[in-house]
Write a structure and sequence with these properties.
Layout: H1 2-20, H2 27-40, H3 43-56, H4 61-73, H5 78-94, H6 99-111, H7 115-128, H8 133-141
Amino acid sequence: MKMMRRIFIGILTCALLLTSCEHQPTWQEQYDLGVRYLSEGNYEEAIIAFTAAIEIDPKRAEAYVGRGDAYIGSGETEDNLATALADYEAAIALDETLPAAWLGLADVYIRQGDYDKALEVLKEALAKTGSDQVIADKIAEI
């Protein structure tokens, strides 16, 4: 009987250890998943994946840019534009040298019809990013 009890406890311990070792996705896995969904046009899933990445590591600006892009892709509603704007601003607060964040922010202002604000943002971006060529091209386009 003692032997059966030890075997049962051993099996129970192994089962508990296995269930507690469940794989937790990494920031990179969630971010890559968001990028994949975004490229497929699956914006709702992209938002979920980027949000998960942000929850894992809220100091990584790229995930905020990705989520902002996904909100823009979801439709140009007032709520989506406001949420995307907040995400791009959060990305810039974390890394002001990230051209994609500045371009996303300017894009929101363009979509809202505020070309003066978009141009102002892009000029600031040019200084912060070390004269990024894509930003310079966007300024010339406006």
